[in-house]
Amino acid sequence: MMTVFILALLVVIVLLGVKSIRMQFITRPIFSFFKKVLPPLSDTEKEAMEAGDVWWEGELFRGKPNWETLHSYGKPKLTAEEQDFIENQVMTALTMIDDFDIVHNRKDLPPELWEYFKKEGFFALIIPKKYGGKAFSAYASSTIVGKLACRSVSAAVTVMVPNSLGPGELLTHYGTKEQREHWLPKLASGEAVPCFALTGPEAGSDAGAIPDTGVVCRQQFEGEEVLGLRLNWDKRYITLAPVSTVLGLAFQMQDPDGLLGDKEALGITCALIPTDHEGVVIGQRHYPLNMAFMNGTTQGKDVFIPLDWIIGGPQYAGRGWRMLVECLSAGRGISLPALATAAGHTATKTTTAYSYVRHQFGLAIGQFEGVQEALARIIANTYQLEAARRLTTTGIDLKVKPSVVTAIAKYHMTEMSRDVLNDAMDIQSGKGIQLGPKNYLGHAYMANPISITVEGANILTRSLMIFGQGATRCHPYVLAEMETAAMEDSCAALERFDSLLLGHIGYAARNAFSSLFSALTGSRFNQSPVSGETQQYYRDMTRLSSALALMTDFSMLIMGGDLKRKEMLSARMGDVLSELYLASATLKMFEDNGRQHDDLPAVRFVMATRLQNAAKALDGALRNFPNRPVAWVMRALIFPIGNHFNGASDKMTTELVSGMMKPGPARDRLTFLCPDFEQDKGGITEVEDAFKAQYACRQIHKKIKTAQREGVLPKKLSNLELFALASERSIITQEELDALLKADELRLAAINVDDFDTL
Known about the structure:
Radius of gyration: 29 Å
Helix content: 55-70%
Protein name: Acyl-coenzyme A dehydrogenase
Oligomer: single chain
GO molecular function: flavin adenine dinucleotide binding; long-chain fatty acyl-CoA dehydrogenase activity; medium-chain fatty acyl-CoA dehydrogenase activity
Domain Acyl-CoA dehydrogenase/oxidase N-terminal: 84-191
Enzyme class: oxidoreductase
Domain Acyl-CoA oxidase/dehydrogenase middle: 195-294
């Protein structure tokens, strides 16, 4: 047996170590096979692959994350100027918001709020200071949008769109000097209101398939014949279109007469057009789930514009898709995650408060384990949302364009906000479903599908983008191998592929060994950058990262180009990457917060959930892998003794809820986007005041409960009768009676809902 093993080892050494033999028997056949199974890339897919940057997700995809790199990114912080803006202008704006009036009566923001937003620079958060903008960080912009969203989705969307994908961002990054100097000051001051028209009836998530055209031609413009574009478009779902004064437009640029060169189809191009320009039609208004932010249609037929109106000038003709992909980070990584995180902060603040002040069967509903189960999910998801918001904006503020990360953030954070709002509505029930000025959940609940739909529908984001782009972009060898396969010089291509192949074989072998060894040893020998309770989480994540890298290699080898059509399979593997990213964000926020002990219950619950979800996704991919013998091999390497990631326990649930059912720093850190203030018109401050008053009276209530158990006080009395009798029998003092009466008054106000005259 030993002789056979030694001979086999010698064969492997010769095959891999002697270049001429390796090239003949390994490299050449594999290269030929690789070119056959290579997934074909469309032009838009190729541009998407090349656009943006690989960031932390690259570490997670490669099987051995460098956790010190994660910790080196720094903690997101507000500058003094950003903090001042939030404490003053943002807080002032919040006092001006009456969301029920905005949505149900005005169906628009009040004129004074529009003017305040323009005057105070809410539409200029990302515009450079030299043009009159704020030049705020992504983290600050996200925080501002989040705070507004806690009171009004309609107001938040109105502010986020000019600071998201659109004219302001595109001009800042790509505009000519003349375009920036003309438009950016107007956008910063609010004189110009922008919108960006990308989506149409035939192009939604597949934005690269837009049918709108711009044909190069010569035509009269301002008294002289110029070279320009004859545009035809039909767009819908365009936010701010009904009130816009300048339209960003994406279209397919064509040059059939060869006026610019020998290329007829130039590709997607972006232009900037005043909405009062001849032929521009701002059409009918939409009502996205009855929200009041402006959204509508725009059309144009044979609209002529000069080439200089292309964003970036004529040299950017045909480069629009790459521009859009690189700039989508604002919508996917800042704005929509901010809305999702705001939903979490609001739900956590109000539902923990409501669960304390709302009583059934003689108990606060937060004491029922069924309620605690849903409440724990709300709190844990909110911790996760805040952590992901911070890490994602950190990447954007580091000036990287992490397209895969922002796709993860967009999909998972908007889905988590849906879960949070569903759980909050279940707990607050009647309080949540009766619309009125006191209802702080209803509009966010109604609006949630908007975030899930826009910037790429979530279903397709999950099944096509996260793994589809991530596997190729983040893999240390595959993209280079694909480029090698496309080389015209076959000899040079084979030489390059040979060097890549050796590295790839070593990489795959390392991940196979790491995955198996980690599984057999419970990850105990994997490195962790920290000691203490969280170190095992880092070790387990390294194990799952190795498993993902291993399975990615097997999948691409076995299925090749067919993998992108196996959407359910690739979506599951994308889920593994996403769960690892979200878990990374959680651990980083715990470190950034100074490893606060009262954050540990949330960290435990979140990490148990993330690891369970990642392992479940791997298990699902293995069960559905089309080549069963290969699936058996992978299972033996990944789960040799089974899947033992079991998720959060009941004990974790009760510990998390009990720690958040009282005022304190941990709760404040998790609800800071949702402030309470005296002029609040939306019911949040009302339920928070009731919660604090009731909590302050907890020892007084204990006295009364003790007296009831001892038979000194009867058990079946209304609160007012019970309090009066307790005072009369000197069980409580007059001061305590006054506190109880005030707290009960606040409690009744908080649990009551709005009612209206019948029609």
